[in-house]
Design goal:
Blueprint lengths: L2 H13 L5 E7 L9 H5 L6 E7 L10 H4 L18 H11 L4 E5 L8 H7 L9 E5 L4 E2 L2 H13 L5 E3 L2 E6 L2 E3 L14 E6 L4 E5 L2 E9 L2 E6 H4 L4 H6 L4 E3 L5 H10 L5 H15 L3 E3 L12 E4 H4 L5 E4 L4 E4 L3
Parallel strand pairs: 1-2, 1-4, 2-3, 7-13
Antiparallel strand pairs: 4-9, 5-13, 6-9, 7-8, 8-15, 10-11, 11-12, 14-15, 16-17
Amino acid sequence: MNLETDYALFMHRALKPTLPVHFFTIVLNGEPFIRYHEHMFQRLPFEWHWHIVEGVAQLTHDTAWSVATGGNVPQSFHANGRSIDGTSAYIDDIADRFPNNVTVYRKKPGHFWDGKIEMVRAPLANLNEDCLLWQLDSDELWNPRQIIAMRSAFLADPSRTAAWFWCNYYVGPQLGISTRNNYAQNPNQEWLRVWNYKPGMIWHAHEPPILLKAYHNAGNVQFRDMGRENPFSHAETESLGAVFDHLSYVLESQLAFKESYYGLKGALNQWRRLQETQHSAGDESGSLRDFLSWVTDDTQYRSVRALGWKPIAAYDQSAKCWTWNLR
């Protein structure tokens, strides 16, 4: 136990409130990291539900910008609009094992979602209670005490409307971003992940996420962005230990998909050069823009070891599989 966990559990036991947490994940080919989350869920001492929205999102609305850079969705990345890496089978399996906790949303075979915005809107019809609404990407890993601590913080201050977070952003299995206020660590848009949800709220956008609440004023309807209304700041959530692991640039398959979907020409080869250079030279730091052409600022990286991170996910070379450290 540590002070953060002790405090969170004390609040939970003392208040004994009903505040379920509804997680939502939009996913296509989420292996292997999507398998981690159920282990975390089972350690939560309160009601939770996982809404999984699977399939191909067309390059419309929030991600329409990538069309201009050559973004596309090759047939090789999906089968009739579904995952091809085992994610679909895993989703079916976990839905069977947790019928009261998991809801799956899919289009008919061969049909695509009208952008990611349609995907995140899909679960709203089933959100008929006050709850914490938690965006949980398949490659974003949280430990149980972080979830517990954040729920307790919202219970202690119900006026808070959302929460912003820092993350440990991996740019390789053993490399991470070491600076802030730059690429992937821009506090003006990253990382808004939790909302104090009330039925009737609506998604206006997904990238960046904008959840709106309607207010009636003198016969007029006005909308307020819950992420900007009265959120927990990055500093506040970090003080609770709520800094998650973001494994967005860890696997070759991730880079291959980004190269096609976002039109990042040469992304996979650039990322490979970063990994190979660091491995051969033994360097532990550098400028990310020297390797990734779409990074234009002075974002720095270092080895995970030098950063002192304790990864939730680790690859077991002998067993040839990923293992989870729930801390």
